[in-house]
Amino acid sequence: MKIINTVIAIISGVIVLLGYFIPSPLIQSLRQPLLDWAVILSGIAGLIAILNLVFGVHWKRLKENGASKGFSFVLFIAFLLTLVAGIFLGPSNTGFQKLVTAVQVPIESSLMAVLAITMAFSSLKMLQRQRNWMGFVFFLSVVIFLIINSGVLAFTTDIPVINDMLSGFHQVPVAGARGILLGIALGSLATGIRILIGSDRPYNG
Amino acid sequence: MTAELIWTFVSFILTVLVFSYLLGDNPLFKFVSALFVGITAGYFAVVIIYQVILARLVAPLLQGSLVSLIPLVLSGLLLLKLSPRLSRAGDTSMAVLVGVGAAVAVGGAVLGTLFGQIEGAISYFGTRPDGTPTTVYRVVEGIFFLIGTLASLAYFHFGARRKKLGEPKQPVWVRIFAWVGKIFIAITLGAVFAGVLTAGMTALIERSDFLIRTVMSMIK
Amino acid sequence: MTMADIICPICNRVNDSSAERCWYCQAILVKDQPTGSENEAGKFSGVEQAGTANHSGPASDNQEEEIPEWLARIRQLEREEREQSQGVNPFTSAESPADENADWLNGFRLEGESVSESDTQEPEKEVPPLSEPEFLTCENPPERISAKEDEEVYDAFESLLAELGIGPSNQLEEVVEPEAGGEPVAEDLEQVESDFLKRLDFTERHESEKPSDQSNLDSVSSEEIADVLKKIDSTHGYMREEETTIPSQELPESNLEPETAVDFEPISQPKPGIERNQESEFDAENEPEPIAGMESASGEQSKELPTLESSGIIPPVTDTPRPISFDDDDLPEWLSLEEPVSAKKSDEPKNKPTPAVGQDLGKLERAHLPAWLHAIRPVEAVTPLQPAPEPPAEGEKPAEQGILSGIEGVLRSADLTGQIKKPPVYSPGIEVSERQLQNVALFKTLLEGAEPVDLAKSAQKPPVKSSLILRIVVTLALLAAVLMPIFSYTPFVITPVLFPAEVVNTFSKIQNLPSDKPVLLAAHFEAGLAGEMKWTSRAVIEHLMARNIPMTLISTNAIGYAILEEEIRGISSVETNYSVDDQVVNLGYLPGGTLGILSLTRNLHQALPYTTTIQPAWDQPILLGINRLSDFGAVIILTDNADIVKTWVEQVGTSADVSPILAVLSAQAAPMTQPYYDSGQIKGFVAGMNGSQSYEQIMQRPYQSTLAFGSFQSTLLITALIIFIGGAVSLILSSGAGMKKGAGK
Question: In whole angstroms, what is the distance from residue C468 CA to residue C463 CA?
Fold first, then answer.
């Protein structure tokens, strides 16, 4: 069975990859259904993740005797109520969408705000942990780009040297980001090819 | 309007409960966190049911498309992953997903990022996209970006040759190049961290603004 | 042997002068015992005679007269060994003294003929399968006796077999190995007896046969065996010295009983040289263990049997040699089985002739050990001499080794001696390969410069109060930076004058879009940054609405489209000219991430067939005529993650005819999106409040970004100040600590 799965993965991957380079109608006709099926399967995978979270983790926690049993109960009840409401009302219902806009957004935004304060507090001790040249460069870069992002250096537009320096410094991350993106692309390429040749089989259990 | 007011009040309460974390971890914060996770999970499940299962699996079958049986079977097998005993049955569906995903990643990386970014790196030395010829300043800028790009790539090169006596070491020029790349990467990551802080502060400002407006509207 | 060495009175072997007990038979040695004594000369005279019979020429005789008797004896032994190796069986010699044949085993031995010919020629005769007492086993086949004695033995044997109901078996013949150049077997009688003896012999047993045959072997009771041997012994008067000298290594200790000293018949006959050699060889390799309960017979020769007697297996020797008693209580369990012996085996003809005794005696070499002892030798048990042979299939030759050797139809046991390997010796050190060393060196270079973390210090928790105070101070400072500009009537704001190029390009692209072509808005942001995305995208959406451009909403995450739709509805309440229901179609969630985006580029209708209200999407008025992604006026990506921009660029931007890609980003996604704008793969982007404020300035419509820009600037400046102060303090403190350390040194 493992060999069959490997063959299926390789064949489906090769067909999709060939579709990038060969505009053959035959390959496109084979490619499109595979893409559609993969889209559906990825959605089902998301559903499996949710079911595992609710029933695999929190439902088990409810059965056991633990300190966090109450919060698992709250989670389970919230999930059930939202699911029932959504099935009856539908995702396009304005009232149902309020669950997102009036509950999820405030909570997550507030969490992000609290995170920002925590990050600022943690950044106080940045140089305590990374006391080396690279840590110092990072520290300087953070400070400078915070100042640049704030826009207070707009007064320097009339000063050509400083303006050029700042605009030049603003472009420096492009080089580093390009290098990082190329590195990520090469890594993705290597990992993808390993899967397409059957060397890596993450799907076999 | 009443519903709007109720939802606004709910948002206000939830925001305050989350901000209580600034005073320390407390049960109210944990309650809000559990509520958030439950609602998110339920919402996501509803969206999947409507947008994926009903729209892409059930509807084509009702329309008479027999080809839709294949993704239906594959989805059923994938659902067996929830069971520890039967999880092996879902390996075939995972194989399709992983194979197609790998191919998409490879194709996109080659055609999108590799070709595009290499073209972008050398575009400084040729005619601009708008057709105007390049300038010396642009060429110098291009050299600077090219050195930065190659140095950043060299930083991620960890191969080294082991000499007869001593530890394995990289060639001197690779080490120098990697050190330069380290500087570029440090600056880039500093800019990214500054961006994260900026986004967080924006969220703080937006939440604070919401609280103030809500309070103001309640007062009025 | 030196003149000071002592000769054992029991076994007549040479022992060291300092020894108190005989090395071989553990008899007590008397110090004043003659060493190169006349007794020895008397004892060995027979051997000499036998030995000299093989000598050639009178010169050798003269030499024997001159040389001491003990030397003659040694030479005789050597001669006999040589003859044995050449295939001459000294025991078949007519000149062999009667004393040599005094051994009770002689009754079972045949004279004259080779083993190999006897194996091939002699018909099979019935021999009772007997269990094999350990002390009777010897590596070498039994000695030959005279033909006359053989006949008598054979008659007695036959009668016994008839009483026992035991018939001849094939196993004996099959066990016996043919010898090259051996002596021919004289008679069937001799062959039968040799076969029977062979059965008793554990020499080089191969794989065992079926257990049923084994049970036949063991089926004879020990009492029956004892009776058989008693009769034979009484007939021939065998010597007892052999029994006494066999070490009792495997005798069970439970059978050790203190036996009374019994007069032992003085040994008047020289021992057969081969037997002596065999014993010496045997004893040299396996030191006989002293038997508990053995009493010393001081000052007397051969008064008791030290090993076998004390163990109780053999009764004390009287003046007349007594047959060996096989008492069940004394015997090991495997000897005392009482299963009946099948009589049918006697009818089976012999398949292989049994070797002659003389030929078997040719095997009596110094180095030979009993098979059972050979098998348990510790040296060979751990070092395989040869690979384990493959077990033969059923119906093939019978087992050739093991305790069931020579028996047909038994299961073959695996020879584990060849499979046992020397246990691996593990060195206490760690074996590190070259590659591992390289990796270690690489890690070392990577970690160079990193300050080692002092775990002890890091494990210590800082004082709670100072940390909490600092946390409160930072929080208050930030909140003050946020709130003060809001509540201040004259907020301190530095409005940017120059707009970023990417913002300007975005504005110009949207400004130049055809108003009849819808724009695809693809959202992918989390609820946490929904506030920033709302503020950042407000100006762009307002611009689209101002130009009355239709919008199609999708999201590659579950909540994006809902937040975006709510935002658009909120903005449309301000822009009264724009009807959301007519101009906006929400296609909902596109699952699959990268896969979904690619399917969108290949087959737009199939990728998103329905709207969020489960209506056919591509029948909507604004989407009529839209068949491909390039039919849209532009693709505007609203995201807080640079990877989403990368995905869209990789999957959509590579097409030949592609709509312009624009982006509305969170501030955190801007640095990694810049290269794509720089390479022209996206035409423009608006990032964060900074970008949206610039866009609002260009549009000359102050929205939330402009209104909250003061808070934005002050908050960022305060954050930068906090980080700078923290870093500076850390540097000052660390440099002060470093100076203190240097001063301390």
Answer: 9
Strand (E) or helix (H) holding C687: strand C684-687
Q: For residues C336 and C170, is the Cβ–Cβ distance under 8 A?
A: no
Q: How far is C549 from chain A (nearest CA, A)?
A: 23
A-B interface: how many C-beta pairs under 8 angstroms?
391
Q: Judge whether C131 and C366 are in contact, CB under 8 Å.
A: no
CB-count burial class (<10 Å; 0-12, 13-18, 19+) for C152: middle
**C239 beta partners:** C103
Classify each residue of B200-213 as buried b or exposed e, where b means 16 or more C-beta atoms within 10 Å of its C-beta: bbbbbbbbbbbbee
CA distance C535 to C666: 10
What separation, in Å, do the N-terminal and C-terminal C-alpha atoms of chain B show?
15
Q: Are B108 and C650 in contact (CB under 8 A)?
A: yes
Residue B120 forms contact with C (CB below 8 Å): yes
For the record, the structure tokens of C60 come out as 């050798």
Who contacts C225 (Cβ-Cβ below 8 Å, separation ≥6)?
A: C130, C131, C133, C326
pLDDT, position C180: 44
**Distance between CA C187 and CA C122 in Å, rounded?**
8
Separation in Å, CA of B109 to nearest CA in chain A: 5
Amino acid at C279: E
Which one has a higher pLDDT value, B172 or C524? C524
Task: For residue C685, list its beta bridge partners.
Answer: C663
| 3-state SS class at C608 | coil
CB C486 to CB B208 under 8 A?
Answer: yes
**In which element (H, E) is residue C665 found?**
strand C661-665
pTM: 0.62
Closest residue, chain C, to A45 (C-alpha): C592
Residue C58 tokens, joined: 């009178």
Render C532-589 in DSSP notation, one character per residue.
Answer: HHHHHHHHHHHHHHHTT--EEEEESSTTHHHHHHHHHHHHHTT-TT--HHHHEEEEEE
pLDDT at residue number C671? 93
Q: Using 50, 70 and 90 to split pLDDT, how confident is the model at A94? A: confident
pLDDT in tens, C169-179: 444 444 444 44
Please identify which residue in the block is written with the tokens 């955190």.
Answer: C668
- Are residues A141 and B53, on separate chains, in Cβ contact within 8 Å? no
Termini Cα distance of chain C = 80
Average pLDDT of the residues in C655-674: 89
CB contact under 8 A, C712 and B188: no
Alpha helices, DSSP H only, in C353-463?
Answer: 357-361, 371-375, 378-382, 434-447, 455-459
Residue C241 burial by Cβ neighbours in a 10 Å radius (0-12, 13-18, 19+): buried
Q: Do A116 and B101 touch (CB under 8 A)?
A: no
Please tell me which chains touch C, using 3 or more CB pairs under 8 Å as the contact test: A, B
pLDDT tens digits for B109-138?
998 899 999 988 888 888 766 677 778 888
Q: Which strand (E) or helix (H) includes residue C686? A: strand C684-687
Mutate: best of C469, C482, C665, partner B, most B CBs <10 A: C482
For residue range C200-222, list pLDDT tens digits in order: 554 444 444 444 444 444 555 56
Q: Which of C41, C44, C79, C46 is nearest to C60 (CA)?
A: C79
Q: Report whether C409 contacts C212 (CB < 8 A).
A: yes
The pair phi, psi for residue C522, each rounded to 5°, is -110, 115
In the 8-state DSSP scheme, what is residue C351?
S
Long-range contacts of the stretch A151-157 (C-beta < 8 A, 24+): A151/C494, A151/C495, A151/C496, A151/C690, A151/C693, A151/C709, A151/C713, A152/C494, A152/C713, A152/C717, A154/C494, A154/C495, A154/C496, A154/C497, A154/C498, A155/C494, A157/C497, A157/C498
